[in-house]
Specification:
The chain contains 23 helices and eight strands. It has 598 residues and is mainly alpha-helical. Helix 4 crosses helix 5.
Length: 598
């Protein structure tokens, strides 16, 4: 799976052999429940300190190069990636409920940020930073409000196929956007197709810088070799090696190699970013998309690690923690952050016990900016492009999509539609189109649901679908009809049509029609009125209209609508078997059940 879209976790049970971590205390009441970091501090054990400090120092080795790489990939100055890293980690340490989760700039947000910043900034770095910071403030505010209102369930709109399509589209977009820097040149274009065409034109014109390309390829090779070797920070080794090599290359050999340059010394002041009036709409829309995607990624990762330790995940507190991290990043000249599936395992494998690991990592990055801002001055941008491309490749999901294609093709094509939408129209419109398509598909299942006529199958208990069991026997004059969906305005007329068609097709004249109502989980006003009309039609034809196995909440709705009173309690049966027995008692028919024969 991907850096930002981990596999769905197993049920929340401690895994055999997993490293035990002490359980969180009971969730406090009142305002303290929104400050889980302070609660952990009150329960902190001195024995955890050594583990948290060592894990934080190990984490720093990855935080710096990855933070810079994602900033550059998002169309922002390199320093903004470190600002987002520092203050996102510090805020999450106070407000975030997960003790091991690491937040920071992430590949899943690169295309979203770039899609807003690039067309609006006009290449002005200061304006780009203001736009990105405002994106973080908007997404942070949305997350905090949604978490406070207990709306953590909204990310259920992002089904697994949608997430796969979104991540694959993001991966392609990010890779294409980084190819020019990988080959050592710049292009001035926006959009996947335009960028791809401009890149190919530049290649044909011979604009490739061979030194930059060599450094990028070497970086990719080191990352690939060390990717599956736990405990060895391949990204750090690749970045350090490329930086040293670039620094010691002679000027003539290094001609045309674009480098990061000296970072600003010190830490940023708190600042409210200012944007133009005509920027408000795209920034609001982008902030909403960032909030939705970042929380979807964060919640999946948080559930995954909670399952390992036996902790109970809290999506609402997780949303507040994520929102606080984004607010802090935005106020200190950073950009939107999310949970990272590449840096979180680094912290866990290094022995992290609590959120203090993130605090140590953030303070170490602060020391870098205060004491050694020129340390990364010779870092080639081609190396950063290689880091981002490697992360984007990790986003790509193929194997599970093959499985989805085999078992549910419409969801596979939904994923492909999301992929195409993100790649061709941008991340925000693409994911919006995918969500709309998913909702339409869900409504279609309820709009044109499955229905069945039921009969008695010899050797089997209950009553079963005649289409699947053609030899099933029907009680003469009794029609058992099952509707496998809620009854609502979109399918009520179809329900009536299917019932009347089934009555007309019955091999014997129908005296009773019994609806097996267990799958009917809801009835709205429109459907209730249709049921009332259907009762009148059936009654005129001498047919009793009855229900069996209707759930009490649905029956309560019919009582409020007055339909229950019109039909009468005697037409509602607890089970289909009870309805059949009642019919047989009232009508002399030639019927012997196979159980009675036995």
């Amino acid at each position: 799976m991907s850096d930002s879209a981990p596999q769905e976790p197993a049920p929340a049970q401690p895994q055999p052999g997993a490293r035990h971590r002490p359980q969180l205390p009971a969730t406090p009441r009142g305002w303290l429940r929104w400050l889980p970091g302070l609660q952990i501090l009150r329960e902190y054990q001195i024995g955890w300190l050594r583990h948290d400090v060592m894990a934080g120092l190990a984490l720093t080795a990855v935080l710096v190069p990855v933070g810079i790489a994602y900033a550059v990939a998002s169309g922002l100055p390199a320093i903004s990636g470190l600002y987002a890293t520092i203050f996102g980690l510090l805020a999450y340490a106070v407000f975030g409920p997960s003790r091991v989760l690491v937040l920071g700039p992430d590949s899943s947000l690169v295309a979203l940020i770039l899609g807003v910043v690039l067309p609006l900034s006009g290449g002005d770095p200061a304006r780009a930073m203001s736009l990105a910071a405002m994106l973080a403030l908007v997404s942070g505010t949305i997350c905090v409000l949604a978490g406070s209102l207990r709306l953590g369930f909204v990310t259920e709109l992002l089904s697994k196929p949608i997430r796969y399509g979104y991540m694959n589209g993001i991966a392609l977009t990010v890779i294409v956007s980084q190819l020019p820097a990988f080959f050592g040149f710049k292009i001035d274009s926006a959009g996947l197709l335009q960028q791809a065409w401009a890149f190919l034109e530049a290649l044909a014109q011979g604009r490739t810088n061979l030194v930059s390309l060599g450094l990028a390829c070497g970086t990719s090779l080191v990352i690939l070799v060390f990717r599956r070797r736990t405990g060895i920070p391949g990204v750090l080794l690749a970045v350090a090696g490329a930086t040293l090599l670039s620094a010691f290359l002679e000027e003539t050999l290094r001609a045309g190699v674009d480098v990061v340059g000296t970072l600003p010394q010190g830490l940023p002041a708190i600042r409210i970013p200012l944007i133009r009036l005509d920027d408000i709409a795209p920034v609001l829309l982008g902030g909403l998309a960032v909030a939705l995607v970042s929380f979807a990624d964060t919640s999946v990762l948080a559930r995954s690690y909670a399952a390992r330790t036996g902790d109970l995940p809290d999506p609402n507190r997780e949303m507040v923690g994520l929102g606080a991290a984004n607010l802090a990043a935005g106020l200190f000249q950073g950009f939107p952050v999310s949970a990272s599936a590449s840096r979180t395992p680094v912290a866990e494998m290094a022995g992290a016990k609590t959120q203090l690991t993130g605090v140590v990592g953030a303070l170490a990055v602060c020391l870098l900016l205060v004491l050694a801002p020129s340390l990364l001055a010779s870092l080639p941008r081609a190396t950063l492009a290689a880091v981002v491309i490697a992360s984007a490749c990790a986003l790509v999901e193929v194997s599970d999509l093959r499985r989805i294609y085999r078992i549910q093709q419409w969801e596979f094509w939904l994923s492909m539609g999301c992929f195409a939408g993100v790649a061709l129209f941008g991340a925000i419109p693409g994911i919006g189109l995918a969500i709309v398509a998913a909702v339409i598909e869900f409504l279609w299942d309820g709009w044109r649901p499955h229905f069945a006529v039921l009969g008695r199958v010899e050797g089997m208990k209950g009553y079963h679908d005649l289409k699947r069991y053609p030899d099933a026997r029907q009680v003469p004059g009794l029609l058992l009809f099952r509707w496998d969906a809620p009854l609502f305005f979109a399918n009520a007329e179809l329900f009536q049509s299917r019932v009347l068609e089934t009555v007309d097709a019955s091999p014997t004249p129908v005296r009773w029609l019994v609806v097996g109502a267990e799958p009917i989980t809801s009835v709205d006003v429109t459907a209730a009125d249709v049921l009332d009309d259907l009762d009148r039609i059936l009654r005129a034809a001498g047919i009793e209209f009855c229900f069996a196995e209707m759930k009490d909440p649905v029956k309560d709705k019919l009582k409020r609508f007055g339909l229950h009173t019109n039909l009468g309690e005697e037409r509602f049966f607890a089970t289909i078997g009870e309805a059949v027995n009642s019919y047989l008692e009232m009508h002399a028919v030639d019927w012997v059940d196979w159980e009675d024969r036995a």
